[in-house]
Amino acid sequence: MEHPGRIVVVSADIGAGHDRAADELAARLRGRGFEVDRLNLLHLLPGPVHRAVRETYRGVLQRLPWSYHLLFRLTSRSRTSVRAIRVLLRPFRARIRRRIPPDTRAVVSTYPFANQLLGPLRRRGRLRVPVLTYVTDLVVHPTWLAPGVDVYCTVRHAELRRPDGVDVTLVEPLVSGAFGGDDKVDRRRARQRFGLPQDGVLALIVAGSWGAGEVAATAAEVLSTGVRPVVFCGRNRALYRRLSGAGRHVLGWVDDMPALMRAVDVVVENAGGLTCQEALAAGVPVVTYRPLPGHGRANATILARSGLTRWAGTPEQLGPVLAAVVGADPPAAPRDGPPPEDPAGLVAAAARRAAPAGPAEPERRPLLDPVGDAVAVVAALLQSTGGLR
């Protein structure tokens, strides 16, 4: 049977949160019969520049967190800064347009800077198919907003200061069904699989695929409460080597996060993004502690206010908060308003209504030189809202 069309899903490998959401969306769309192309926005850059951008962002988060927080606040309050980012990214509009095949019927982004490229193309008529975005954070930072984007998909408890004319749809989190499915591995078998003790309370400490933030301090302070920390270091090998031993259970990259979450009693996280949504789907209580600057603190505020998580603000509060959530009933999902939509269903409906994108038009503007492109993108990406989960 002929497929109903092609959909391009645009993400970026800045952390893992943006990519994980894109992977889940792509899997759901393929299940509905669509051809799906995955596009890493940073692959538009030359390889060395791509790596420099990613490592610069990682370095700012790890070594200069105060500067990242300052940039996040400045771009939150100033529309001028977002327009400046859009101008800096302008040379890449033609490149991303050429990566959208003629038979494409919709484009979806899970990364905010992609909107600053796709929105203007859509508004100027150079991209004739719908542009939708799935916002991976709970705070809809202004860098997500771009003229020309047709629909913004946000989870129910996200906060958005909505400009006039912005179409926002409440959707389910893009979380794999494996986290809340009926085929759950029991706790005993899950602990055995990961070499964890069968007895005692275990707290899974998660700091994204980069192991960003004050992970060592968090592990020590969780241990001091009498709870055994299980530290997920992601792909941060230096952190893995540094934390191994001393009463902690330290893990590198884990492919089966649903099973790992079923092995523990509580998740302690610092970004409030996709990992938090996964834990809630799995029915595991979540505590936010030592949140990352910028988007981490903003997400923590919203999650705590909604009652979905608890925020331990000091080491003295950590023990009582952990004691309060372990063994307690998971928070109930909000019941007010209509039920959220499946984002894949929303995208599929838009794609079925659309005509194909057609071939890209020839570029009318000269591109910047490679050095100018690299400087522009590095400067802009330092102001990104980030994707660590």
Automatic annotation (TrEMBL):
It holds the Pfam family MGDG_synth. Residues 343-360 have a biased composition (Low complexity). Gene3D superfamilies: Glycogen Phosphorylase B (3.40.50.2000). It comes from Micromonospora humi. One of its GO terms (molecular function) is hexosyltransferase activity. One of its GO terms (biological process) is glycolipid biosynthetic process. PANTHER family: MONOGALACTOSYLDIACYLGLYCEROL SYNTHASE (PTHR43025), MONOGALACTOSYLDIACYLGLYCEROL SYNTHASE 1, CHLOROPLASTIC (PTHR43025:SF3). Belongs to the glycosyltransferase 28 family. Keywords: Glycosyltransferase, Transferase. Residues 331-342 have a biased composition (Pro residues). The keyword Glycosyltransferase applies. Residues 18-155 form the Diacylglycerol glucosyltransferase N-terminal domain. This is UDP-N-acetylglucosamine:LPS N-acetylglucosamine transferase. One of its GO terms (cellular component) is membrane. Residues 329-368 are annotated as: Disordered. It comes from the Bacteria.
